[in-house]
Amino acid sequence: MKKYQGLSILIVSLFISTVSAQRKPISARVDSLMKLMTLEEKIGQINQYSGREATGPVTRKQTYQLNDIRSGKVGSMLNVHGVKNTREVQAAALQSRLKIPLLFGMDIIHGYKTIFPIPLAEAASWDLDAIRLSAHIAAREAAAAGLHWTFAPMVDIGRDPRWGRVMEGAGEDVFLGSAIAKARVYGFQGDRLGGTDAVMACAKHFAAYGAVAAGRDYNDVDMSERLLWDTYLPPFKAAADAGVATFMNSFSTLNGIPATGNSDLQRHILKGKWNYKGFVVSDWGSIGEMVEWGYASDSSDAALKAITAGCDMDMQSEAYKRHLARLIKEGKADVKLLDDAVRRVLYKKFELGLFDDPYRFCNESREQETLSNPQHKLIARDIARKSIVLLKNEEKVLPVSAKVQNIAVIGPLVKSKRDLEGSWIPRSDTSLVVSLFEGIKGKIAPGSNLMYAKGCSIADTSQADFQEAINLAKQADVIIMALGESYSMSGEAKSRTDIHIPGQQEALFEAIEATGKPVVVVLMAGRPLIFNKVARKASAIVYAWWLGAEAGNAIAGVLFGDYNPSGKLPVTFPRSIGQIPISYTQYNTGKPVKSPDDIKYKSAYIDSPNSPQYAFGHGLSYTKFSYSGLKLSKSSISANETSELSFTLTNTGEIAGEEVAQLYLQDPVASVVRPLKELKDFRKVSLKPGESKVVRFTITKDYLSFFNRHLEWVAEPGNFKLMIGAASDDIKLETALTLVQ
Ligand code: NOJ
């Protein structure tokens, strides 16, 4: 026995000493390593534990985890960060027989130390370079703090604002969502995996989690195959095409099968059709949750179903660790499934360079330097201001002149800091956050009088403090109100049945508005809120989401005209909860409403217009843009031809600005019914006053294609309507294109 032990130690040390020197292809290095691994060691590689800062229910002690790490029973940790901590835990892994380094993962959703706007807010910028840069800075900071992997981007399409996780995604649209998915993957991962300023990204939650029934988190999803392919899968495909290193499955079911145990999704689509080579991690405990769902009889059955379905790594449920070896020995699970999962995980460890140096992400001075880089704050401010959407601006009440004498700032979010960071941040540090109050203070002229009253708390039931605010409002020339949600009202497990502005805030607005003074309302939230009274009566509305550490400066910059707002809504804002789920991609129906006065026997509500409060793509500027001269180089093309669509965009106002020109398409007659409008492309164009630019799109067959009834991606010959708009409900130009056989 001793002799064999000695021999195996020799082989292992030979392997370890040569593995870094070898320059064999990674797959060969993975194979060599796997030959040395016991069944238990292999299973260890696909077992992931959380550190102390849990992002879900925690069940085990740290000492237990460290012992497991030392004996090679853990392949990855989440929620351990900071060079000191990751170094310490990595050292435990290097005491294991094969010294296979751990992967450290964490939810770096919108920044590590520098907090950027929440992902939904950034999507409102429609600025792919800025979004990519934001992800890159987040990755750079995370990598400097010892992390290898972020559980982002969330690429779930969100059309139900009751679902708290809409804040984490890019909104409702397939095209925009796919473009942003790519930008974020490139941003997080850099040019290639292995750079010490980049981390592995993770496309989540595969798939269709955004469509949970009734907007209730963790609920079931029931969906047609076509809706899945047409709308919910494309951003995942885009992430896979961009080389995303990992996928995460979902807490939800899809048509009766939990996503975690769903082989149609993971084996057939992802690893089959899409030939995906990265690995799939479960969501937190989602393997074990298949028992609660009633899809597995116990944790062992859940382990068998998950590994069979293609879930490679077990986050937190320990189902693989406890049962997989026995399942394999009993011949119930095929060892090839395990080998495939382990191979995928090890491949990433090699790609990250961890076998060359397990501590290559553990450099204290890099950590210090990166986390104190002053540039990051400026970049955060820039993307924050780009994410702001000006919803309304009557009689040009905005921008406010810095010289205005008396300004009243009112509302529960005026001085708030923590709420501006939003949910999903690794650690809150409000000393780094600029509140709206501080931002405004920094903008106004020295002699101006800045008055403040809170008026009420976010979720107040009382109006006791209204009077103080009203008195203040009466003395003001202009009133700025900051209303919205607290950071804990949107995010995971934060679904709401009522998405009106919480508490007494809208009543406070009405009381202030009754003074007859111009009221500018700044709304901060993680989701589209409903605020019909504000929409009707406020002089101006600025949607500021949760903009992160630089929120106050960014918002004040817009309010006082240092920055001309350019954001557009990435998601529809409903008038009522009854309209949800909602998106601009409506169908005509067989009984379309042609005039709002004629809704008898029409696809309408008898108590509300069909239209939303604010449409997808809506967003105003302090300048005006005109759209003219639409041309199509060919009005008729065959499948292998293209046609160039062009038009002229002019800034007809007096200040420089940026416009997001949107290209929509309709296929009016097709073998399956198509929506009235689908976004196919867009350009964000910057124009000086009086300046014109020609904007071009090359229309290819791909723009005209959709999934037919056999789920084939086809473009059917016939006529298409092409529309150019400033918003989905503000079409400026249109033309027709014919696809010939
Ligand atoms: C549960 C969430 O659904 C997922 O998005 C997250 O990455 C994990 N917890 C880990 O924190």
TrEMBL record:
It catalyses: Hydrolysis of terminal, non-reducing beta-D-glucosyl residues with release of beta-D-glucose. The keyword Hydrolase applies. Residues 1-21 form the signal peptide. GO terms for molecular function: beta-glucosidase activity. One of its GO terms (biological process) is glucan catabolic process. The keyword Cell membrane does not apply. Its EC number is 3.2.1.21. Keywords: Glycosidase, Hydrolase, Signal. It is an enzyme of class 3 (hydrolase). Residues 659-728 form the Fibronectin type III-like domain. PANTHER family: LYSOSOMAL BETA GLUCOSIDASE, PERIPLASMIC BETA-GLUCOSIDASE-RELATED. Belongs to the glycosyl hydrolase 3 family. This is beta-glucosidase.
